Each structure stands twice: as C-alpha cells, then as structure tokens.
Fold these 3 entries.
Entry 1:
Amino acid sequence: MPIQEFSAQDFRCLERVELHADPGFNVIYGPNASGKTSILEAIAYLGRGRSFRGAPTGSLVRHGQPEFVLFGRVEDGGRIASVGVRNSSAGLEVRIDGESGGGAAELAVALPLQVIDPDVHNLVAGAPEERRRYLDWIAFHVEHGYLDSWRRFRRALKQRNAALRAGQAVASIRGWNAEVAELAAIVDAARRLALEVATDSLEEAGRALLGSEVRFEYRRGWREGVALMDALESGTERDIQLGSTQAGPHRADLKLIYDERQARKLVSRGQQKLLASAMVLAAAETAQAALERPLLLLLDDPAAELDEASLARLMARVRNLGSQVIATSLHPETPIIDTAGAMFHVERGVLRRES
Ligand SMILES: Nc1ncnc2c1ncn2[C@@H]1O[C@H](COP(=O)(O)OP(=O)(O)OP(=O)(O)O)[C@@H](O)[C@H]1O
Ligand SMILES: [Mg+2]
C-alpha cells in the first residue's frame, strides 16, 4: 500500500493527527470545518511539496505556531521508506529515509498520488496551466528523464524572456532560439507520448463516467506545420513588445471534446466534475501501470455536485482502479463506502479510528 502511517503536526487546524491507513478504502467523516480537507491536504503535501488547493505554504502552518511537520511511512515496490516534510521560517525541508536535500520531485517519486476534490472541475474549466501540469505529471511518471528536460527547457525560456525584458539586441535574443527550440521539441515529444499512453484510459474513463464519447486534442503551444525555431524567429518583434515568449510548450493545452463539442464551454458543472475525475483516474491508472504499483487516491467530498447515479459510476471506477483510497464525507452513512476498509471520525481536528 502506498501509505501505511501518517502524522501531521500543526498543519492548518490540526494540532496533531496520526493515521494508520488501510491498504484499500479509508473514509474520514466529520462535520463542516472539522479538519477533513486539512487531513487530505496534509497527506497530499507529503507527496507533492505543495497544497492541492494552491494555498501558499505559509498559510498552512497552524495559527500561532512556528512550523508544520508531516511524516509518513510509504511503500515503494516492497520497500518501506520514511518521508518527512518540515516547513518553518527557514523554508521547506524534505527528508527521505533520513536524507535531507530532496524536493517536490523526490516526494512525488516516494508517494505518487492524485486528488479529486470539489475544485477538480478546474482541470476542465480552468486555465490551460492546470492541464499542462496534468500532462506533465503523467509524463514525469511514465518517462524517465522528463523532469530534467522540462527543467532545462524552463531555464532556457526564462533566459530568453529575461533578454526580451532587458531590451537586449534582437541578435542576442535570437541567440536563445536554438536552445529553446531544441529543448521544446523534447518536452513536446514526451508530452505526446504521455498522452498516447494515457489515451485509452482517458477515453474509457470518460465513457464509463459520462456514458458518451470523450476525446482529447493536444495543442502543442505553437502552430502545427511550423518549426518552433521559425515561429521564434518570426515572432521576435512581438515577443519584444509583449515582454515574453509567445510560442512554445509553455503555451500547450489539452482540449476536451465531449459529444463533439468543447467540454470546457458546454458541459454542466457536474459533468465537468465527471470529466475531470475521468482525467484524474486515467492519469492514476497510467502511472500505476508504468510504476507497477498502486497509487494513493485522495477523494475530498466526492459526493459534492454529483447525483446518486453519477456518484455510483465514479466510485465503481475508483474501485476498479485498485488504488489505495482515502475519502472524506460529512456523514458516516454515505454511498461512497466500500465494504472493506477503515472508518475514521474527525471532530475539531481530532481524528479517531472507528472500525
Ligand atoms: N493555518 C490555520 N490554522 C488554524 N486553523 C486553520 C488554518 N487554516 C485553516 N484553518 C481552519 O481549519 C478548519 C478546518 O478546515 P477544513 O477545510 O479542513 O474543514 P473540513 O472538515 O474539510 O470542512 P468542510 O466539510 O466544510 O469541507 C477551518 O475552520 C479553517 O478555518
Ligand atoms: Mg472540506
């Protein structure tokens, strides 16, 4: 199982929480503001080094306290690893098996996870950045070396943008084009491959959750049929005016087509949630296959926005995945509960196992 033991100290409203997770299905229930989302956010932080709600790390420290500390014992292909994160005024410290110096990438390797929360619809309805991050997460887990290529591309792009903003001569800006284009090609190829690997899962999950055909169209971030090198050359004047590089994989997007229409604009909020959940489950399935081990899936109030039938389809798909699941609910009697697993109650930040 991905996570066996977990503890959080001074994270949001949680003074101290310990959780011994079931390898299968875990439910945490409790009233509004009891700390359900905080617990999931703390677990997710341990696997990502950031908040899944996009909250600044400083705001996650319990009011009046100097730091938060998270710890987990996680299973990585039969091996148990200790993962710790401490955030204090000195910054973020990551420790894996006692070794410090790691960062978000090392956490993601130790505790790969996906989240479905009430804001998951942003994956469909929100800015392209959400979908790029989604695609990059799959590429990171499926392709060795992707993170390194992505980081090198970001560095080259940053330098070109700095040259644009510093008002440097056109020739010196163009001096960055070859490197940007070369690294962009690697990132683009890796993203295409990641999407190709995930496509069957994506389409199948889309059909299962929405009962209709769902397709994904990848937009690479610059015009098809044009080499990025040429796009950068011809776009230099415009880039200078706008102060940033307009063409490249940092502008990529994933268009979701549902019923032959662009999902982002046309589907209802509940349908957006189902589409986004299909994307999340497909990413999890793809990474599980690549890593050959189950992932952790965090479901924060999965019942929100969904009618009974939709929720049943979502939960059937979740069970089908075979991941370790930690889900939250307002009430103990909830249709999300599977037969097996553990039940926890949380009240005012205090977590107790019930069964
Ligand atoms: N840094 C912090 N320090 C102390 N308390 C905080 C901090 N950040 C958030 N909180 C509080 O934590 C409480 C629990 O929030 P949380 O989102 O975990 O509740 P929840 O159980 O998920 O509620 P809901 O059912 O409404 O989703 C809230 O009252 C919130 O104000
Ligand atoms: Mg909540």
Note: The CA atoms of residues 178 and 229 lie 6 Å apart.
Entry 2:
Amino acid sequence: MIGNHQGLNTDGWTNVGEVVIKNGGIHLNLELIKAPKKCIEYVLVHELCHLVHHDHSKAFYELLEKLYPDWRKTKIRLEKLMV
Ligand SMILES: [Zn+2]
C-alpha cells in the first residue's frame, strides 16, 4: 500500500480522512466526495506527489507547486470546508 496518508495531520485536513493509493487506484474518503471538484483535484495531486516524495519536504512542495500552482488557495478552501 503506497501513499496511505499519514501526513494528513500535518496538512491540517485530518477530517478529509484517508486517501489510499493501491493497485493503481486511488481511494478517497466519502467526506471528500462532497467537497468541490477543485478541492478533490488538489487532494489527488497532493497524493500523487507523495508517490514521488513520501514526506512533506521542500522537494514535495516544489513538485506540488509545479503540478498545481493554485494549491495554497485550494488548501485553505478545503480546510474551511472541513472544519
Ligand atoms: Zn501530504
């Protein structure tokens, strides 16, 4: 099981729950499905970045920035939704 997300707490979106990437598929928490598409997109890109970097290192955020330049705004939006 790759990407079973243990970084959720540090990301500040504990309530999003678990995003698990296994067998080539991505499993999302049902709570997340209720979120706007943009937020789901962000979580997916975030998870995909973890396939390359298994932490929240500088390199991880550099990759995230490249793939999803809007991530900060979307993360804030998601956090507000999940409170
Ligand atoms: Zn993460």
Note: The chain is about 55% helix and 5% strand.
Entry 3:
Amino acid sequence: MNRLEAKTAVVTGAGTQGAGIGNGKACAIVYAREGAKVLAVDIDFEAAQETARLIRSEGGVCEAFAADVSKSADCQNAIEACVEKFGRVDVLHNNVGITNSGNPVEYGEDDWDRMMNINVKSMFLTAKHALPYMERQGSGSIVNIGSINGVRAIPFPKTAYAASKAAVIGLSREIAIQYAAKGIRCNVVLVGLVRTPIVENNNVKLYGGNIEEMWRMRDRMSPTGKQGEAWDVAHACLFLASDDSKYVNGVVLPVDGGLINMVKL
Ligand SMILES: NC(=O)c1ccc[n+]([C@@H]2O[C@H](COP(=O)([O-])OP(=O)(O)OC[C@H]3O[C@@H](n4cnc5c(N)ncnc54)[C@H](O)[C@@H]3O)[C@@H](O)[C@H]2O)c1
C-alpha cells in the first residue's frame, strides 16, 4: 500500500469507451489507491469525470481534465494543470491508443496519420511538456502503453496499429537513455489479450461478429486459457510507476500471460 504516496500522476485516456473498466481507468484507480493524486485526462470529459468520481468515492484524489493528446497545446495544458493542482508531475502514464485494421493498400493515408498522431505523437508531446518539470524535480517515471502487436504480427492486418506500437518502443527507449542520468525512467507495457470495452467496441467484426464467441476465442488463444483483465495491466504499471522499479529503465514488459513466447504451427 501507498507505493505512490506523495506522488502525482497524469493518466491519459483515463476514461473508458463504453461501460466497464478499461486499461487507463484501471491504472488511474490503482495509482490513486496507492496514494497518488491523479489527473485523469481524456478527450471525452464525461469519461474522465466518471473515473474521477469513482476514485473520489473510494477516498482518493483525482481531477478530470479534457484534452486531445494528439494536440501539443492540450498536452501542455494537461501537464501544467497537474503542476498547478498538485505541485509536481511524478508519473506520466500514456494510455491513449486507438486501433483499426487494414493492409497497406486498403489503409487510407489520413487514417495512417491519425493513428500515428493519436498513438505515438501523443506520447512524444506529453513527454515534451512533462520532462522539463521532471528534470527540475530530478525524478519521474513515464509508463507508455504498447501492444504485443508492436513486436509480433497477429492474425489480423493491423498495418498502422502495429507500426504505431512499434514506434512507442523506439520513442520510449530514447527517453529512457537520454534522461536516465537525470533520475527519469521510461518503460513500456506490452498489453496482450485483455478483456476491455475497447476490444468489444473495435474488434468484434474481426472475430466474426459474436461478442461471446470473441471472448471464448481470445481465451483459447491465451496460454493461460484466459484473457487478462485491465487490473493485470494496472498492477504491472504500478510497479513501473513506483519507486519499486527505481533501477528498471527502458524495459518492454509484456503483460500477456506468456502469449508472446508462443509459436503457432
Ligand atoms: N485491451 C486490449 O486487449 C489491448 C491490447 C493491446 C493494447 N491495448 C492498449 O490499451 C490502451 C487502451 O486501453 P483502454 O482499455 O483504456 O481503452 P479505452 O478506449 O477504453 O480508453 C482509452 C481512452 O482514451 C480516450 N482517447 C482516445 N483518443 C484520445 C485523444 N486523442 N486524446 C485523449 N484521450 C483520447 C478515449 O476517449 C478513451 O476514454 C491502448 O493504448 C491500446 O492500444 C489494449
């Protein structure tokens, strides 16, 4: 308990698209339970407010903030809001990520740019605005949410998504090394098959259109026989966000039940 006591956290994509608990919301809740003051950032202000309400109902501290993290000014405003409200920025947790499918021929150029802007440029922009504060503090932990699709092909044509998630790893590695001597760490969590509303909303067509069958298929695809939950992602992120991992920097941590090690014949 209290692994983030006296710390603050900016969590992007802290709402959830749809009913239930997504990865960003779970991370915001777990950080607050561990003592962090959380700025819950989302383009959907109501979704961010819902996360803030949940955290406050448990006695935690959370403020909702509306921002489109693909825009530099919004990222700057979010980081400044965290400093104004809570005094510092200890944890920057970049969860925002969208997903869709298509091979390079069918995938639109505008869609490609949008995917890159939302999934990768956003992480560059939030870091750009948070790093000067972290440097002044002499400490900070950045947790970027990747995907196993950033290092492995999956059975669907995820051209732009896979490229964006691979880029998240390169960006994070650069930050990790460039800022290590300044007390700032940057790590990536590779999310595997996790049962969250974003999957229900975006992936069901890829699995044939039946939601329950999709969940069964994803359970079967997992080495453990079960998909993960958003809480599994959140607890791994908590380790990376907190000082428990103070000598862990530039790692790419799969949270996938071992899926990444499997070879499908
Ligand atoms: N669930 C899985 O199986 C799985 C697998 C691999 C990776 N992931 C990763 O997990 C992350 C998403 O997790 P989630 O469950 O929280 O998803 P989610 O879609 O429920 O929540 C993400 C939040 O981001 C917000 N958002 C979208 N675009 C934004 C923008 N431009 N600016 C600010 N906010 C924006 C949405 O409004 C939403 O509330 C993504 O990075 C995704 O790639 C998930």
Note: The pocket of nicotinamide-adenine-dinucleotide is lined by residues 12-13, 15-17, 22-24, 42-44, 47, 67-70, 95-99, 118, 145, 147, 191, 193-194, 196-199 (CB under 6 Å).
